[in-house]
Please model this.
Amino acid sequence: MELDQSVLTGGEVAAFKLRSLYRQYGYMPYKMSKFEEYELYALNKDFLASDSIITFNDADGKLMALKPDVTLSIVKNSEEIPGLLQKVYYDEQVYRTAGTLNAIREIRQAGVECIGEIDTYHSCEVLLLAARSLYSISKSYILDVSHMGFVAGLLECIDISESCKRELLDCIRGKNRHGIEVICGAAGLADDMLERLLTLVQAYGPMERVLDELRPVILNEAMSSSFTELEQVCSVLKNLGYDRNVMFDFSVASSMRYYNGLLFTGYIDGIPSGVLSGGRYDKLMHKMGKKSGAIGFAVYLDLLEGLLSQNNGYDVDILLLYSDDARVETLNRAAQDFVSRGLTVRVQKAVPKELRFRRLFRLSGNEVTELGSDR
Model:
């Protein structure tokens, strides 16, 4: 049976496409409970998108939390079997508070997690899935990619306090050239180190061009190996035809406590914030007592509800009006005639105030007459 996308919201259409895409690459569905023990999230609050966690006590008095994140639950429940990769996808609700009134929000996410001995192929595969996820939603998309290993490698070469390094990371994230100059000046750093930092913070654009700009910045093995991985990513995505929509951008940066490799954010034309985010998070795995590596991403489906679905912005194709003296049999035949032609129809006595319809008809006697269109 073919899916009728005209009855789905933008988020529902996206979820259906994404689940089909992830199955094509051998990722298996993962289902989890709506809640976990609070301790899981309390110990990893700075990994979460929001530190507002909704808690309650279960029947045994144990403090539980409505899950504000999916990745932590998957990591907690992952099995570590040598040589075996766990490749899962999910379509889940997470729960967070938002706004000045701390209202509870139910947010739908879909995504993938690849856990185990992550090699270059699987890093590229997850990035490809991120690009294809965006493409399945809109042809007008951008995937910004950076590498925390490259950033961390550069910061390792700077002889300043950890707090100053965190400030520098914030400046890189905010593309704050002036802030970098102030920190470097106060620390008495050499001009060549300042130039490397400024090159990094200004690096944005097509992959090959940014690689050329970053090659002179390399100072150590960590940066060199990260650069090599970025070259491999560039080659794979270019060969598959995704290079026009993928940019290298080192303002895509996150906590060095959790992320250690590729990091990326996806954008769709018409939505002001990122609709996809992900990265390599081996450090989170190790913090939670796991030896494996891991990489994955989430698509924020709630942000897609405003996108037009397959009905091009109309609630129905046909609005059919009728009067009190209309015969029920005649009205039913008229409605069924539209339905049999694959059209959606709403039958009412008056025009609803907020309804968006393609064409307006009225039944008078046995005659159906078109009155107008497009509202």
User: Anything to note?
Assistant: The domain at 5-304 is CATH 3.30.930.10 (BirA Bifunctional Protein; domain 2). The mean pLDDT is 86.
